[in-house]
Amino acid sequence: MQSVNLVSYKNRCAYLNAQIYKAGNYRYRNVITILKQKFRSWAFRRTVASGTVVLNQRRIFILPTRRGLGFSGVLLLMLLGDINYNLGLGYVLTFLLGTIAGMTMLHAFRNLAQLEVRAGHCDAVFAGDNASFVFYFHNNSRLPRYHLVLRDDSGHNTTFDLPAQHNSRIGLAIPSVRRGWMGSGRLTLYTEYPLGLFHAWSYLEFDTHCVVYPQPGASLPLPASAAQNGNGKLAGTGDEDFAGLRAYVAGDPLQRIAWKALAREQGLQVKQFSAQQGRELWLDWSLLPNIATERKLELLTRWVLDADAQQLQYGLRLPNLEVLPKYSSGQREECLRALALFGLPEVRP
Question: For residue 257, how many other CB atoms are within 10 A of its CB?
Fold first, then answer.
């Protein structure tokens, strides 16, 4: 019995030691990561760019990779052997390989030099989805650029090539975490072309942001009477407001055919118009009492999506903002933007 207790005690001690070691190792790596980020921010500080960035020699940095350091060690051993045994052909081979290594460093630098980069538009997304940041690369030289990698600080990256004298649209998908404004942050453009002996890189940071809408909550029935005057206002078929296009059906009047869409080779489509029926629907903050703020925003987001899908004329009422009821193509985006920036500054950070 005592031997069993002793074994159990040893197992518990070993488990506790393992947990302490794991916690200490995690804390050590976390501190190292923070110190590396602070050093990089201090050593390679750059202002946020709002236009086109040209990668010149002041923006490009080069260091040997692990493969390059190993290759240098091999060259050093070869040189020592050549000196020790006085090998003439060994000198030729050693210096030839050294020359090739020097040329790869030049090619790695040239693979980034004089590239022009500017940021494009980023569409709004819902929290939890990937935000696709768009960047435009212009290679105005006669040399193609190979195996370029664009990466953010979290490790999300995309790899691409740039043909000679060509403009390329490159997208970088970064997961969104929370609602509000989301920026691309500091990005790293690097290459190890052609042999992987040298790592050439440049930092890019643009003033580009996208709006992250709250994540839609669980399905919740729309309020039946959310305003003082009652029910929602349904957009039915009529002749008042343009509501979009649909495919042509035999018997549709010719005056409603979208001739411009037909000229753009989009097929035979018919214009639809909406007429107001019923009363206004208010998606009101006060209809969701005793619920956490973020949960309220998620449920209101679900209501906005459902009301828009049902073509209702709806409005949004928040404690500090009111979006008047209407049915239009921009009503959904206006309401979702108001929910995304609720309690946050309207101006981008």
Answer: 15
What pLDDT is recorded for position 8?
A: 63
d(CA 342, CA 214): 10
The tokens for 306 are 């459902």
Highest mean pLDDT among 5-14, 30-39, 277-286, 327-336: 327-336
Residue with the larger pLDDT of the pair 265 and 128: 128
pLDDT per position as a tens digit, 199-252: 999 999 998 999 999 999 887 888 864 434 444 444 444 444 565 676 765 545
Query: Peptide bond preceding 194: is omega within 30 degrees of 0, i.e. cis?
Result: yes
Would you say 111 and 148 are in contact if contact means Cβ atoms under 8 Å apart?
yes
What pTM value is reported for the model?
0.71
In whole angstroms, what is the distance from residue 137 CA to residue 204 CA? 12
Smallest Cα–Cα separation from 72: which of 28, 37, 118, 105? 105
Angle, helices 331-340 vs 293-309, to 10°: value is 170
User: What is the spatial distance between Cα 179 and Cα 216, in angstroms, rounded to a whole number?
Assistant: 11
Can you point out the beta strands (E) in the chain?
Answer: 53-54, 61-64, 116-119, 125-126, 130-139, 145-152, 157-162, 166-175, 180-183, 187-191, 198-204, 209-213, 233-247, 269-278, 281-284, 312-318, 321-326
Total count of residues recorded for the chain: 349
Pairing verdict, β 166-175 and 130-139: antiparallel
Nearest to 194, CA basis, from 294, 136, 109, 93: 109
Backbone angles phi, psi at 316, to 5 degrees: -125, 130
